[in-house]
Amino acid sequence: MSNVNFTYLILSNIFSAFLGWLVASYNLRAAAKRNEVRHACDKIESILTDLVKLTESHFLKQDVIHSAEFFESRANQLVSLVEMRLEQIKNRLLCSFIDVDLLSSLRALLSGEIDLSEETGEEKVINISEHCGDIVEALEQAYTSKFSPTIFSRVSTFLDSHISKIITFLIVALMLGAVMILKWLFSPA
Fold first, then answer.
1. What is the DSSP secondary-structure string of 23-60?
2. 3-class DSSP assignment, residue 66
3. 138 burial class (0-12, 13-18, 19+ CB within 10 angstroms)?
4. H/E stretch holding 189
5. What is the DSSP letter of 118?
6. 148 FRET partner, CA 20 to 30 A, in 63, 106, 156, 180?
């Protein structure tokens, strides 16, 4: 009789340890994904800030040290860095994070495909700054919608805020069920 109780105790402990490991692993992966995407979003915002500063330096201060070719190549480099970070986010989340048209319009604006010849330097800076601001806004909106519940989805908000309690309840229920089944299987008839 004691040998049977010891066996079912060992099996139930192994089962509960495995379920606990699964829950901890899920929570760690979700937190790591959220932190990685937040870091990439912050990096994109920093790159776009550098792009606005470069634009201001080129168009407003009439930077004589750097030529127009330098500005265009550096601006394209910064936009490529943004695209690279967005690709990292896309690979991590398995979905597109923001609309690609925002970046392509910014690239067209910087490369001269969109005619800005009639605009003053200040208007060009404002135009490019607005495009960068639109990208940051879209980025923040996408991050918030992906990782934060909205007020309109009350059911998902409830599940998101109480998911750990629900998972804990289910694990305890499964463990108790497993213990009862093991006790029934190994109890003498």
1. HHHHHHHHHHHHHHHHHHHHHHHHHHHHHHHHHHHHHT
2. coil
3. middle
4. none
5. T
6. 106
